[in-house]
Amino acid sequence: MRWGKRGPLTAALTVVCAVTVLSAPGTAFASVAPAPAQQAAPAPTPTPRPTPTPRPTPTAVPDKDLEKVREKLDRLYHDAAVATDAYNAAEEKTKKQSAEIVALAKKIVEGRRKLERLKDQAGAAARDQYRTGGLSSSAQFLLSDDPGQFLDGAGRVLQGQRAARSLMAEKTRTQRDLQRYADDAADRWQELDANRKAKAAAKKKIEKQIDAAEKLQSRLEKKQKERLARLEQEAAAKAQTAWLGTGVLADVHGKASAQGEKAVQYATQQLGKPYVWGAEGPDAFDCSGLTSQAWAAAGHPVPRTSQEQWKQLRHVDVEDMRPGDLVIYFSDASHVGMYIGDGTIIHAPRPGRTVTTAGAGTMPILGVVRPDA
User: Fold this and answer.
1) Which helix (H) or strand (E) holds 223?
2) How far apart are CA 225 and CA 148, in angstroms?
3) Full-prediction pTM beyond 0.85?
4) How confident is the model over 114-125, as a mean pLDDT?
């Protein structure tokens, strides 16, 4: 994409305005004055409205299927977590690209001002040359009454020519820079638009998965919901017991670093706050929002998403983990918790839950990463 015949300044204003209008409020409508009073017309006969068809009552779930319900809820919330990571990644990219567009627009405006100054200087140099008559140096020497004065003047002319060439070269460079800034701004805008679409698609998928999970749970009676909660606790306890049974904690004796202690302290202070997808505090968190903010509070920023935390941070063996390390879960790195010692993590589990502690082995562990390696 190129800016065509529009100048770089127009391009700068375009990208700045485009970024600004993304959050502009909707258009307001003016009120209409009432029409003059007229003779009342006969009231029309009201059309009877059709009786709405009652929505069917959700079919109750048989008790024998509660384990299948638990497994299906796990899948739905897992898919929502994957989509949340995609949403968060797109959100981070749109922030970065918006900042890059604004920075490029500022460069374009500054470059345009510089170009105008160079044009003024080039015009002044051309006028000076015109005032000398544009004669050759040999002709000026022959016509001069004072050869010594001419030689001094010739030196100044030579300096002026060099300055003029330098001026034109700088002007060319500035024009080239302006075109590059405009091209870069166009590319960043295309990337920004693509990530806005990716974010919208991820949001739609998150809401779809959560809505399906909520509808499934709405079919449960109170006693069934209590039974489902017990099934979840039993499954978590079984997984934790199996993990501990491997003897993994026998070799885990790592002590938290000073920054790790600060990160754990921050995460602990968030206990009880609700899970909200895409949230990174201070009132609500998703899983990677909690871990990224905890480490930011400790003075060591980390990537925003669990997948990027897994990709970019140093991997350590489970046996070497220490409080403050991040435990990444599932093969797609779609969940993360912070290890706090004694085989326990703090994490933001899923929609409808709050920041809580859990056994580190209650979910399939992909690996452990250390932010302050």
Assistant:
1) helix 222-245
2) 106
3) no
4) 76
Question: Is 335 one of the catalytic residues?
Answer: yes
Residue (of 295, 271, 298, 283) closest to 358 by Cα position? 271
3-state secondary structure of 315: strand
β-pairing verdict for 365-370 and 314-316: antiparallel
Two structure tokens written together for 185: 């701004």
Fill in the amino acid letter for 185: A
Which residue reads 């250390």 in tokens?
A: 370
pLDDT digits (tens, 9 = 90+) for 160-216: 566 667 777 877 888 888 888 888 888 888 888 888 999 999 999 999 999 999 999
Annotated active-site residue in 78, 253, 287, 315: 287
User: Which residue is it, tokens 């983990």?
Assistant: 321
CA dihedral 349, 354, 357, 358 (to 10 degrees): -40
Q: Which residues contact 283 (CB under 8 A, 6 or more apart)?
A: 273, 274
Tokens of 157: 């002319």
Exposed/middle/buried for 187, CB within 10 Å: 0-12, 13-18, 19+? middle
Q: Which helix (H) or strand (E) holds 52?
A: none
Active site annotation includes 287:
yes
Out of 17, 300, 315, 347, which one is annotated catalytic?
347
Active site residue: 17, 78, 315, 335, which one? 335
Catalytic annotation present for 17: no
**Tokens at residue 88, please?**
């968060």
Residue tagged 């779809």 (tokens)? 208
